[in-house]
Structure formats: structure tokens, C-alpha cells
Amino acid sequence: MTRIIAGAAGGSTLASVEGTGTRPTTDRVKEALFSRLESYGVLHGAHVLDLYAGSGSLGVESASRGAATVDLVESADRAALVAQKNADLVNRVLGWTAVRVHRAKVETYLDRAAVGAAWDLVLMDPPYTVDEGGVVAVLAALQNRLADGAVVVVERSTRSPEPVWPTWLERFSDKKYGETRLWFLEPAAA
Q1: Whole-angstrom Cα distance, residue 62 to residue 15?
Q2: Distance in angstroms (rounded) separating the CA atoms of residues 30 and 75
Q3: pTM to 2 decimals?
Q4: Domains recognised in the chain with CATH numbers
Q5: Which of 36, 19, 108, 94 is nearest to 60 (CA)?
Q6: Which of 31, 68, 87, 95 is least surrounded by CB atoms within 10 angstroms?
Q7: Which pLDDT tens digit goes with each residue over 126-177?
Q8: Distance between CA atoms of 184 and 110, rounded to whole angstroms?
């Protein structure tokens, strides 16, 4: 059972995707991640992009904690339906539509995203079947689409090697939580 940890919808139980096709971020990792993001000051009023959203757990947590808009991108039908249920729950609590679900492949969504989109926070938790080259290709598609001071978080298994980051992104931190590793990236200084 996953839940929203804090904010306007804190304590709400989230729907989960049945089966083994997704691996939800544990509450422990989610709590540590959002504690860190709040310390960076990137959540309040942020425009958030949650790639490979699964149930949308990370994105709806962002909205609950004060993000202005959240785009959940998920290609799997069952997962997208669950993400929509969770988005509807948070939107109802907030009283407006902060969270939108886009049923599309990540690459397709980024190809079609409005030019000039400026996300403050990008959460990226790709399936293990997406190799490091796939991770880097998606990150490359984010170039010129991040706001000043944006943060990109990549979640992977600790068994996955660290990707070779695009030159326009710098890793400024990483943290291991059991079998999960989080990498924190920001646009490189000019």
C-alpha cells in the first residue's frame, strides 16, 4: 500500500498498479527524496514532469506538497489508468486540476511537448528494461526545456551503472537507499 506522505493530501491511500510491470518507489525513499527536494526549495509553485510515472505516486506527492502543475507521462494502459485515479484524488483534494496524465511514450511526449516548456523538476524512474543509452537519450530531449535552477532526479537500481550524463547536465548529488539509487542533476553552468 502506497500513500501520499505529506501536504494537502497527506495520508491519502493511492491506488497501485497490479502485477510486476511497475516497481513503486517505497515510502522510505519517497520521504527522503521529498525531504531533500523541499530543502532545495524546488517544490513550491513548481512545474513538475514525472516521466515513466507508473501509478503517479511521485507526481501526486509533488502536487500535494505545493507544485503548481504536474505532468504524469506513462505509456502502459493499466498504469496510466491507475495514475489517472491518483491524479483525480489529489485534484479533488486541491480543488483544481494540478495533475494531468499523458498516456504516451516518454520520447513521443517530449517530441510533442511545447517548445519553451520550462519544468522546474523532472522525476525520472524508468523501467529496468530501459538501458543507460535510453536514459541518456531521454535526458538529451530535456535540453532547453528546463527552468533556471531546475532539478532532475533519476531513480535506478543500485545494480545499474551510473549513466554517462549529457554534457549540459551535472550530477550534484546521489544517494543510495537499499536497492535504489537517486541521482540529482542540474543544468551545467554556462
Answers
A1: 16
A2: 22
A3: 0.95
A4: 2-187 (3.40.50.150)
A5: 94
A6: 95
A7: 998 899 999 999 999 999 899 999 999 999 999 999 999 999 999 999 999 9
A8: 20
